[in-house]
Amino acid sequence: MEFLDITFSPKEYKRFFNKIIIDKKTNCWNWIGGKDQQGYGQGFYRSRRERVHRVIFALYKGKIPRGKNIQLDHLCRNHSCCNPDHLELVTPQINGLRGNGLQAINARKIYCKYGHPFKPQKRGGRYCPTCDNLRHKKRMQGSQRKYWLEKQRQATARYIARHK
After folding, report:
1. pTM for the full model?
2. 51 C-beta neighbours (distance < 10 Å), count
3. In the structure, what pLDDT confidence band is assigned to residue 1 with cuts at 50, 70 and 90?
4. Phi-psi region of 21 (alpha: psi -120 to 50; beta: other; left: phi over 0)
5. Angle value at C-alpha 82, between 78 and 83, nearest 5 degrees
6. Fewest Cβ atoms nearer than 10 Å: which of 84, 102, 106, 124?
7. In angstroms, how far is CA 114 from the centroid of its own chain?
8. How many CB atoms lie within 10 A of CB 27?
9. Residue 82: closest CA among 25, 37, 23
10. CA–CA separation, 143 and 126 (whole Å)
11. How far apart are CA 126 and CA 112, in angstroms?
């Protein structure tokens, strides 16, 4: 496995830290140099383009494994920040769940859209038992009642056959 291991020469140290401004309120080390499309600071270290927060983290906290199974999470949610105290090595799943994407927003929900509490499912995930019961009652009163009763009878028969 390849690692990002950093040792700065005095010239490299000066070149990197001349492009960092410290915000007194948030204690973020804001990169004022070049940035990529997501707003992460970028710079060259030993003729290779690197994200600045990764370089600074490796300098102060130690080696970072290269690859997709480990990421640095900005605890301050500021992409241009490179303060090593604001960064944490995490898996991509944890990093995604801490963010503001659709996956993270839905994972934090504890109630369905009608205000009923979710319950965990045996195989993972969650469901709303109240809404499930209401859907079932609506099905059983509709025009396809016979169809749903037959489906229910078949499912019960399969369950009994499996558990004999």
Report:
1. 0.67
2. 21
3. very low
4. beta
5. 100
6. 124
7. 26
8. 12
9. 23
10. 30
11. 10
Report the C-alpha gap between 123 and 137 in whole angstroms: 25
What distances in angstroms separate CA 16 from CA 10, 22, 45, 134, 160, one per listed residue? 10, 13, 9, 61, 69
| DSSP alpha helix (H) spans, 49-164 | 52-61, 92-98, 102-108, 129-141, 145-162
pLDDT at 114: 93
| Mean pLDDT on 92-107 | 88
Reduced to 3 states, what is the DSSP secondary structure of residue 123?
Answer: coil
pLDDT band, residue 75 (cuts 50/70/90): very high
Which tokens is 133 given? Answer: 């019961």
Helix, strand or coil for residue 57? Answer: helix
Structure tokens at 153: 């009878």
**Could you identify the residue written with the tokens 């604001």?**
86
Nearby residues of 75 by Cβ (< 8 Å), 6 or more positions away: 86, 87, 88
Residue 22: both structure tokens together? 């410290």
CA-to-CA distance for 34 and 59, rounded, in angstroms?
20
